[in-house]
Specification:
single chain; about 475 residues; alpha+beta; six-stranded mixed sheet; four-stranded antiparallel sheet; 19 strands; globular; Pept_M24; aminopeptidase activity
């Protein structure tokens, strides 16, 4: 027998030495800078973006007068080590520019606006090959400054010129996403008043914004349908995360992605208000709470919740909770119309829930005492609010003062949610065993109109029988009861 011998391994040249940094090798730099054809792409923005942003700038300029304001797009936060989360531009910046370029800065004085953006790292720029986060060799071709100027209808300058533009300013207001070093270097004033102004102005949506929200809601409705079809797979093997992933894939396909972390809570997880871990099973006989919204490419988001029976039928206990939440939901929506105080919907919905809980024997005090500011005992099973403004942020206009947000009357163009619920945790010993682990929420997106309101999400049923029929229709025949 011939003994096998290991083949001789040739040691590569320069083995054992430190590989050179390519930015320090002139020959490589010269080689990679040459021989590239044109790969310039246009800036793609949806129809109406530039016109809407210009109108928004005019409204802000009227609000702040002669003030010069500086707003930033922000930068993606680090996820771990040398990787970052996906970039999502600051909402005020997007509202005023229609642009979603990382590190962008807008300088606005009256009707005069200049947008400062980092130019793409193209061939000839060392960052083309050395910057894994922004170099076009790594991330692909990007629109240049001229392309953005054509698309947005506003002067666009290199970000490197920003310091010169700010050098002679004083008392200028800075938005939340302006880099801290820029604020410090130029003595800008971080301005809560600027955040409030943008927040106040964004409360009433214009026609273009309403169209964006309609699209977000429509895509969300089809996303709910996609999720319902996957319930059997989630029950058999995939669990809550399978349904979360189903909706998130749909949102990424039809828009920018989910507008917030999608909530999928089955059984004992349903009462947990922000159950975004979604690491549990989907129980076939337990109520399944789905709180999800598609964010459009223009970054306007929907926010819709339904509680569905995976089997196609609610249990009697689940049905009773759902019926009470539905009654509260309808009472709240009835108070959404022009001239009505914003909080009226909240109090109307709460009164229904408190009365129902009292009728079930869960309240040890009267309904009036529970509803009083000194009571609130019914809130044990509903610690959150039951509605909010909706727009570029899922909880929109959050920087307005209380009196401007909750103390004002509703007017046409406001888009808001109504979302009452009841949440009986599995370890809550104050409720009967049959209610423990039952969580139900109904949430719709409403547009205040001249004569009342429009439920943008009314393609989804809200009554228990309608939800059972909707669920059973989408389940495979073998899966429905």
């Amino acid at each position: 027998m011939t003994q096998a011998h290991e083949p001789h391994l040739h040691r590569p040249p320069h083995a054992g030495t430190r590989p050179p940094r390519l930015t320090e090798v002139p020959a490589f730099g010269a080689m990679i800078a040459e021989g590239w054809g044109s790969d310039i792409v246009e800036a793609r923005v949806p129809d109406g973006v530039a016109e809407a942003a210009a109108a928004h700038r005019a409204r802000l300029a009227e609000r702040v007068g002669d003030r010069t304001v500086v707003l930033g797009a922000g930068r993606a936060p680090v996820r771990s080590n040398d990787t970052s989360y996906d970039f999502r531009a600051d909402s005020d910046f997007v509202w005023l520019t229609g642009c979603q370029v990382e590190d962008g800065v807008l300088v606005l004085h009256g009707a005069d606006a200049v947008l400062y953006l980092p130019p793409p790292a193209r061939p000839g720029d060392p960052a083309f090959f050395s910057d894994a986060m922004h170099g076009e060799l790594w991330v692909g071709a990007s629109p240049g400054l001229a392309e953005w100027e054509r698309a947005l209808g506003v002067p666009v300058r290199p970000l490197a010129e920003l310091d010169g533009a700010l050098a002679h300013g004083s008392g200028w207001w800075a938005g939340r996403a302006v880099p801290a070093d820029v604020v410090t270097r130029h003595g800008l004033e971080p301005s809560a008043e600027l955040a409030r102004a943008c927040s106040d102005l964004r409360m009433v949506k214009d026609a273009w914004e309403v169209a964006q929200l309609r699209a977000a809601v429509d895509h969300t409705v089809t996303g709910f349908e996609a999720v319902a079809r996957e319930i059997p797979t989630a029950v058999s093997s995939g669990g809550e995360r399978w349904l979360q992933g189903t909706f998130d894939r749909h949102a990424r396909t039809t828009g920018n992605g989910p507008g917030y972390a999608s909530i999928v809570g089955s059984g004992p997880h349903a009462p947990t208000l922000h159950w975004v871990r979604c690491d549990g099973p989907v129980l076939p006989d337990a109520a399944l709470l789905l709180d999800m919204g598609v964010e459009t490419d223009t970054l306007y988001t929907a926010d819709v919740t339904r509680t569905v029976p995976p089997s196609g039928r609610f249990s009697p206990e689940q049905r009773a909770v759902h019926d009470l939440v539905e009654k509260s939901h309808r009472a709240g929506m009835a108070h959404v119309r022009p001239g009505v105080h914003y909080l009226d919907f909240h109090f109307a919905a709460m009164e229904v829930l408190a009365q129902g809980l009292h009728d079930w024997g869960l309240l040890s005090v009267s309904v009036d005492e529970a509803l009083s500011p000194q009571g609130q005992q019914h809130r044990r099973w509903l610690v959150c609010g039951i509605g909010h403004h909706l727009g570029l942020d899922v909880h929109d206009c959050a920087h307005s003062d209380w009196q401007d947000y909750m103390g004002a009357d509703l007017e046409p163009g406001v888009v808001m949610t109504v979302e009452p619920g009841l949440y009986f945790h599995a370890h809550d010993l104050t409720v009967p065993p049959e209610l423990r682990g039952v969580g139900v929420r109904l949430e719709d997106d409403l547009l205040v109109t001249e004569t009342g309101h429009e439920v943008l999400s009314d393609a989804l049923p809200i009554d228990a029988a309608g939800i059972e029929a909707w669920t059973a229709r989408l389940l495979p025949t073998s899966a429905a009861v």
